[in-house]
Amino acid sequence: MREKSSHIKKVFFTIMIAFAIVSFWRGTWGLMDLYLFPDNLIMSFSISIILGIFILYLTKNLIKKLI
Fold it and tell me: Model pTM?
């Protein structure tokens, strides 16, 4: 019975962490929609993609160490 309680706690905390991560990214994307070229979606999306690729390029050595 104790193992079942421990398992339920792990599942609960996993769901809470997943919810927190999704909420964080939803808020981040919402702010980017409001402040990063709000009147020009094509420019906003393009800059976001370029910025993301640039950050991934800069951190490629860190990513290699993590993998």
Answer: 0.63
| pLDDT tens profile 15-41 | 999 999 999 999 998 999 899 999 998
Distance CA 64, CA 59 (A): 9
What's the total number of domains in the chain?
A: 2
Band (64; pLDDT cuts 50, 70, 90)? confident
Same domain, 8 and 29: yes
Q: State whether 29 and 46 are in the same domain.
A: no
Instruction: Give the whole-angstrom CA distance, residue 65 versus residue 50.
Output: 23
Look at residues 40, 38, 36, 64 and name the one whose alpha carbon lies nearest to residue 52.
36
